[in-house]
Amino acid sequence: MADESDRQGAAPEASHAYTLLIAERAAALLLLALLLYGVGRVLEPFALAIAFGAFIAIGTWPARDALVARGLRPGLASMLLLVVLILAVALPATLIVPDLGDQVVAVVQLARNALDRLSPTPPAWVTDLPLVGANAGRLWTQIGDMRGNLAEVIRPYSGAIASMLISLGQAAAASLLQLLLSLLVAAMCWTGGDAIVAQLREIAQRLGGQTAVASIDAAGGAVRGVAWGVVGTGLIQGVLMGIGLGIAGVPAAVALGFLAMIFSISQVLGPLIIVTWLGASAWLYSQGDTGWAIFMFLWGLVPISGSDNIVRPLLIQRGSAMPLGLIILGVFGGLIAFGFLGLFVGPALLAVAHGLLRAWREGGAKAAAAVDERRGACDS
């Protein structure tokens, strides 16, 4: 009887202790949720800069490793990379981008005038070009044939298209501060990147084992694939376009180079790059600058188009290829969601998700194969 009464007295105490434990854990989870919410609110204004900075750091990590391998300390290597990117990207952007909206307006008007004056038949200097003259003349004729139909099709949307391009240029100007913050984030990643990667791998190991660790590596490879194969090629084509147009004396060369970069990154608008340099060549010819027209045609045919056909596959092979559909969705979805920098961040985020999913599937397939192998061993 005494034992039974003791058990009856202990039951309420155990229930009370269990209730206290549940309450403590619920309070701890609530405090953790509030902490995470507060951290999220603090970092929210810098979320895009952090994402783009990480994108830059991952894409340029081989250069950072090469500098460290030559004996430079990580801090000094990150400072050197930061100075190089400021001089090569941030400083020119600060000088060029504020007037980009007005230049895009000039480009739109220039394109309209060039289409109106474009001869339906190719000039002799185009058809007489060695090796490519026949194809170039055929392309010229096709563009001339489509000009009327194309003008009728896009006329109702011409205002919206022009407004979108102008807004894109203005968004690029508004993103200058985010770009500078992104470079600072990238510098911090270059400096402490080894420790950050080690901590991420340790967390992944505790949460998901070796499969999760492989997912981290796959995500990094996917981001590098986008950075080199998509963004890298777009930057190269944009710079080459701007240089060629500037040398030939075409107005608004910077804006046309900027648009060429956007067309290249978007993938689906890539053919407009050909229209750009071919239209510039036609405009130069209409102005009587036949020599510069030939130069611009050859410049677009070899360096600009060659960078897409040769450089892009080589760069993508060094990273992790991602389906074209995901790249297109990432570019336009990122632009709508995050603005101009979303052009770069959107594909990177989808690349991370794609890399994680692929690593998870491969890890599951390996685990299933291991289970089947053990079962076969047991049966034998």
From TrEMBL:
InterPro entries cross-referenced by the UniProt entry: AI-2E-like
Superkingdom in the source lineage: Bacteria
One Gene Ontology term, aspect cellular component: plasma membrane
Keywords, comma-separated and alphabetical: Cell membrane, Membrane, Transmembrane, Transmembrane helix, Transport
Transmembrane regions: 17-39, 45-63, 75-97, 165-190, 236-261, 292-311, 323-350
Membrane topology of the entry: Multi-pass membrane protein
Location within or outside the cell: Cell membrane
Name of one Pfam family that matches: AI-2E_transport
Protein family: Belongs to the autoinducer-2 exporter (AI-2E) (TC 2.A.86) family.
Protein name, per record: AI-2E family transporter
Organism: Neoroseomonas lacus
Phylogenetic placement of the source organism: Bacteria, Pseudomonadati, Pseudomonadota, Alphaproteobacteria, Acetobacterales
